[in-house]
Design brief:
The protein is an alpha/beta fold. Helices cover about 45% and strands about 15% of the residues. The protein contains 19 helices and 15 strands. The strands form two sheets. The protein has an eight-stranded mixed beta sheet, with helices on one face. It has a seven-stranded parallel beta sheet with strand order 3-2-1-4-5-6-15, sandwiched between helices. Strand 5, helix 9 and strand 6 form a beta-alpha-beta unit. Helix 2 packs parallel to helix 17. Bound molecules: 1,4-dihydronicotinamide adenine dinucleotide (NAI). 1,4-dihydronicotinamide adenine dinucleotide binds next to helix 9, helix 10 and helix 11. It catalyses: S-adenosyl-L-homocysteine + H2O = L-homocysteine + adenosine. It comes from Phycicoccus flavus.
Length: about 475
């Protein structure tokens, strides 16, 4: 039987398969996990609902999970981030476009919000009346659907939509209302099935800790983002690569000599600032945290409030995970033809709704995911990916090698949680949010060092004793910050 799917065009599968094949070569972590765990099939019985950008690299992750025994259904966690050829190749698998035999994927570049939430519902709903029993999330949307859905089912209704709701939240509520009409217990049943979630990104992890603190988390979670080999690599070096890839593909403007503002100097901001400086831009950083602000200053960047410098910038990038970081008023103060882009997880870093309400503003599509917004005085700014994360909307996200680190952590976390979910509750029986142990983090790094022909120095027994560590690691205490 052909697999269930909704993608742009299965005819793109061959091109996707070539790209996946090349990506496999650059993803040594995932490939060695296939070798290590392939025979043991630790994910046999797992029904994984994956909500993560459907890119070529994600295709290698999906096929790794399948190689370890899992059944998988996949959607993207962003309406613009799917690479249609990768989605097609995953669906076709070992079959043909006429008879696809791969993995069910529900994702295409340029979904509407309604389609986005429908796809998210599809991954949690298994054929034959079954549901997913694991979530692999990026940003927490699939997890939110199960939590809010169950809450609202228990209350017997979805709260009414108000003027304060974003467009997206209104669409989300409409989806839950529909599912409650079809089955008033659907999300309660899904919640009971889910053994746990592994979460990819900073923003999703924030949501999980908030749920756990409020005592509302329904199942245990592994925070993949805060594996050192994830956030200190993907967020930083990944964005260092893909920020300017997105800028170049979208606008091809020369970055050298320009003034660029990076809002937020966390892991993502550090990578963005470095890549803009590498291209010869003069970079200004904005921060709310004195520690990160001081780091930016010591790294040689000017640190300023956005309102003091927004009129000087040729490029403004947000990377905060916060909301309303650039207001509609500030957008009107930007230079004529300045570029405004967000690389943080959600589009609310830029006040796009406020911009649309500015009197007399008009929007012109230059090409998909590149729009010129012209104000009444004739000046305009260029906004990438409608304010959604631009490295995936305007380019193809991070390159394979760095994603191999992130996704090796994801794979190990899925194996860990699926096999030992009972161990991830506290003594009061409450589900926890935890990071992977350090020896696994070190293992992920080691797998990638080999591929770079890097030589790692080995401690002697005496040196290890002197440092108070084991010769085989872990080499750092938990509080070490890298
Ligand atoms: P982080 O927490 O390390 O850094 C965010 C920084 O922004 C913090 O230092 C914080 O103090 C600062 N900040 C918060 N509000 C601010 C404001 N109003 N003005 C100026 N600075 C402010 O988080 P990280 O890991 O850098 O992630 C940032 C965002 O990027 C998150 O939404 C995350 O999910 C997303 N992300 C996106 C990726 C991509 O490929 N596009 C990859 C990895 C993460």
């Amino acid at each position: 039987m052909s697999v269930d799917h909704k993608v742009r065009d299965l005819g793109l599968a061959e091109s996707g398969r070539h790209q996946i094949r090349l990506a496999e070569h650059e993803m040594p972590g995932l490939m060695s996990l296939r070798e290590e765990y392939g025979d043991a099939q630790p994910l046999a019985g797992a029904r994984i609902a994956g909500s993560l950008h459907m890119t070529v690299q994600t295709a290698v992750l999906i096929e790794t999970l399948v190689a370890l025994g899992a059944q998988v259904r996949w959607a993207s966690c962003n309406i613009y981030s799917t690479q249609d050829e990768a989605a097609a190749a995953v669906v076709v698998g070992k079959g043909t476009p006429e008879d696809p035999q791969g993995v069910p994927v529900f994702a295409w570049k340029g979904e509407t919000l309604e389609e986005y939430w429908d796809c998210t519902e599809q991954i949690l709903t298994w054929p034959g009346g079954e549901f997913a029993n694991m979530i692999l999330d990026d940003g927490g949307d699939a997890t939110m659907l199960v939590h809010k859905g169950k809450d609202w089912e228990t209350a017997g209704q979805v709260p009414p939509t108000t003027e304060d709701d974003s467009e997206e939240f209104g669409v989300f509520k409409a989806l839950v209302r529909r599912t409650m009409q079809d089955d008033p217990q659907k999300w309660t049943k899904v919640a009971a099935e889910i053994k746990g979630v592994t979460e990819e990104t900073t923003t999703g992890v924030h949501r999980l800790y908030q749920l756990a603190e409020a005592g509302e988390l329904l199942f245990p979670a592994i925070n993949v983002n805060d594996s050192v080999t994830k956030s200190k690599f993907d967020n930083k070096y990944g964005c260092r690569h893909s920020l300017i890839d997105g800028l170049n593909r979208a606008t091809d403007v020369l970055i050298g000599g320009k003034v660029a503002i990076v809002c937020g100097y966390g892991d993502v901001g550090k990578g963005c600032a470095e890549s803009l400086r590498g291209q010869g831009a003069r970079v200004i950083v904005t921060e709310i945290d004195p520690i990160c602000a001081l780091q930016a200053a010591m790294d040689g960047y000017q640190v300023a409030k956005l309102e003091s410098v927004v009129d000087q910038a040729d490029i403004v990038v947000t990377s905060t995970g916060c909301f309303n970081v650039v207001t509609a008023e500030q957008m009107q103060k930007m230079k004529n033809k300045a570029i405004l882009a967000n690389i943080g997880h959600f589009d609310n870093e830029l006040d796009m709704a406020g911009l649309a309400r500015v009197k007399g503003v008009t929007k012109t599509e230059i090409k998909p995911q590149v729009h010129e917004w012209t104000f009444e005085d004739g000046d305009s700014i260029i906004i990438l990916s409608e304010g959604r994360l631009m490295n995936l909307g305007n380019a193809t996200g991070h390159p394979s090698f760095v994603m191999s680190n992130s996704f090796s952590n994801q794979t190990i976390a899925q194996v860990e949680l699926f096999g030992k979910d009972a161990e991830y509750y506290d003594e009061d029986g409450k589900p926890t949010v935890t990071t992977l142990p350090k020896h696994l983090d070190e293992k992920v790094a080691e797998l990638h060092l080999e591929a770079l022909d890097a030589e790692l120095t080995e401690l002697t027994k005496e040196q290890a004793e002197y440092l108070g560590v084991d010769v085989a690691g872990p080499y750092k205490p938990e509080h070490y910050r890298y």
